[in-house]
Design goal:
The complex is a heterodimer of chains A (about 550) and B (about 300). Chain A is of the alpha+beta class and about 550 residues long. In chain A, about 30% of the residues lie in helices and about 20% in strands. In chain A, helix 12 links the parallel strand 15 and strand 16. Chain B has two domains: about 60 residues, no CATH class; about 180 residues, MetI-like (MetI-like fold). Chain B is built from twelve helices and no strands. In chain B, helix 5 runs antiparallel to helix 10, helix 7 crosses helix 8 and helix 7 packs across helix 10. The longest helix of chain B is centred in the last third of the chain and has 39 residues. Chain B is elongated. The chains are: A alpha+beta (about 550), B mainly alpha (about 300). At the A-B interface, helix 6, helix 13 and helix 14 of A face helix 2, helix 3, helix 7, helix 10 and helix 11 of B.
Chain lengths: ~550, ~300
Amino acid sequence: MSGKKMNRRDLLKKGGAVGAGAVAAGALAGSGGAAAYKVARHSATPRRGGTVNWALEQDPAHIAPAGGILTMTRTAQEPMYESLLEWDKNLNIKPALATGWKVRNKTTVDFDIRKGVKFHNGDELTAADCVYSFQQHLNPPLPGSVSVLGQIPAIADTEARGRYVLRVNLKATDARLFGYLAWQRYAAIFPAGMYQELNAATQGIGTGPYKMNGPYVPNSRISYVRNPQYWKKGLPYLDGITYQIITDEQARIAALRAGAVQGATLSVDSARSLRGVGGLTVQKGLTAAFRELQMTIKAGEDKPWHNVKVRQAVNLAINRNELIQKVYGGEGQFSGHVPPGYGPWPIPQSELKSKWEKEDLAKARQLLRQAGFANGFEVTMTTFSTPLDFPALAALIQSQLKRINVNVKVVAQDPATFAANNGRGTFEWDLTARGMRGDVDGYMAEFNPTGALGATVFNTWFSAYRNPKMWKLVGNGRITLDLNKRLKMYQELNRILMTELLEIPLIAVNKYQVISSKLKNHYVSFNDFNTGLVRAAYLTA
Amino acid sequence: MVATLFAVSIVIFLMVRLLPGNIIDIMFGGDAQSTPEQRAQAAKQLGLDGSYPEQYWSWMSGVLQGDFGNSLLSQRPISEIFADALPITVELIVLGLLIATVVGVPLGVISAVRRNSASDYASRVGGLIGISVPNFWLATLLLIFFSRVFNWVPPLQYVSFFDDPWKNIQEFFMPAIAISVFTLAITMRMVRATMLEVLNLDYVRTARAKGVPRRHVLRKHALRNALIPVVTVVGFEVGVLIGGAAVVEIIFGLPGVGYILLNAIFQRDYPVIQNATLLIAAVFVVVNMLVDVVYGWLDPRISVS
């Protein structure tokens, strides 16, 4: 296990040995010790040097490692903070600041801390630093927010078992632990006492490939320089990265054209307009932010979509190919409740297209007739007013559903209003985008009312719905460490969800980044951040 | 002035809370999972758990002691946020006003003096265009034009004029032009109209008949009187400039007060919204007071009480 790539299959197979009752202290660990990290091979020899200016489309608000609510907060701090595990480009879990781990029992995991890793201040990383870090994550100090705790698995506490062994004690068996660590968003490791020594909102000390070059200047920039003591030998290639905050898209485009920045995330139309422009390369990659139609099925209400046949009819009337063609220029994929690209968990594209999400108006009308709604019904669907693809998507869905006499009134709302209605369940339907999760459970937890967190969402949105089989699968999926068993559970669960359609997943969309042609080996990360820039990219002369 | 600001504080305090959604909703919104206990904890953490009078008093008592509180999102002291943002907005508005008056007043005079000439028509058409063109459109157009034709964009990081004047000028000239055009057009048209009126008055004609040089007549007799209503308009335009500055700041990435305020509205960052609005209201009140003072200077017959 030391230093070599481990995919989810290997990882959970070893955990499964414990799940089956076989406690194998030591048997699940690798050879331990400082694992040599192999730098990925490139077709050309990467050139070291150069600084990349990258335009961020949103101010991160702060760069504190614990409790950041904005995705941009993690993006902004990614160059300097790491965690015990990491994902590779394909979301395979790899060792990072931990070289290996032993699953002691269902609620105890020991991580071997990589020896010789230095923080940016020169201090060596030890288990005590990890303990401190997780204490902050479990109780985020300001400017962090407790609102992120729902993304953290059931960690009771952590303890240092010696200088280089971190013990994680769970409140209950929780298979989310490893994905949570690999995601790194809520699991950054920093030196003990850091919050007392500096202003974590604008400064930071981590172990990452870059260290801060001056404090974060709000609404302006965050500047990093290479960490010469980085534990992955040979990395990073760049001398530095400066994130410039440019919220206006036209301004980002202008900066790209003028060469003032070497990379930026743009909307699909803007990115496509730059195809063929000399000196620029347009890249795209799938993201976890698949579009989804959500419904409330609340006790005390009597809505047509409380009937599963109505929900199935709506699903069959939606032409996902048309959504992809007309709103996203032909670039997108069908999505189930787990987005495509998310490891082995999603339903395959072929099955989605041929069975679950194949447009069939005749069947849709038949189902509506059977449900007693041959004449259709009216419904209000809320969505975001920006970005503009949401109103466009909503308008297209509105026209598609009109064909089966479902009259959709679209109401566009600003994000805060939308969030308020969504969180309180004060909507009939809404059209939204999901997001990245550390573990597949993140896409399923709302379908189980028995968990503390799921109860809130389920009881707010689905209080009139009953499906003990579904609930059991969700609950067991979270506490099952054996990968094969877990995969089977989620395969079954995925198909139940596609039958019951409490939420109707629509399409997965691409994220577009336009970079200077001199920037090589960069890729668009699935995980919402700029991992391709931070870990792999280099500049040619 | 105090009564006005007090009224503004109450109105803005209530208005933001009447907006659907708050920062807690944003934090827990979408498909994020939370329990009622966590939401209550977050509300307490951010000082949003008290009643409206309690929250208002907490804010106001701080303001009266010079403590404007912290941003709910970043936890930065608002005084720090404004210390960074205010110079940017002030510079933008001052430059915009400067361009508008330095260019607009002479253009208006020329247009009035050379009535019905080619320059008059050109000024009037230009004025019409200036009034019609939205400043955000012009700002975007300028940015695109310079980036495409000259492969140049303004510096990405704000520097103060006192630290690097040349870089500062490069950073501000486009946004200042974008923000000034509307006010320039209004000023030009107002000067032209009032000059035409004043030039036809008896005392001006008398002065010309007595052989007073034309320039002297224009500068000493006509312009000074023509400027009185213009001062009113320009004072009023400061409010328009403040509003226009917000959009232009976003387009050019200048983190001024407008930029901060707009983002705070989207994020429901109450303390920033409240304090920024109060600040803008205070500026407006002060500017109007200054307009009254300038009146008195221009026309000694007007007493300032």
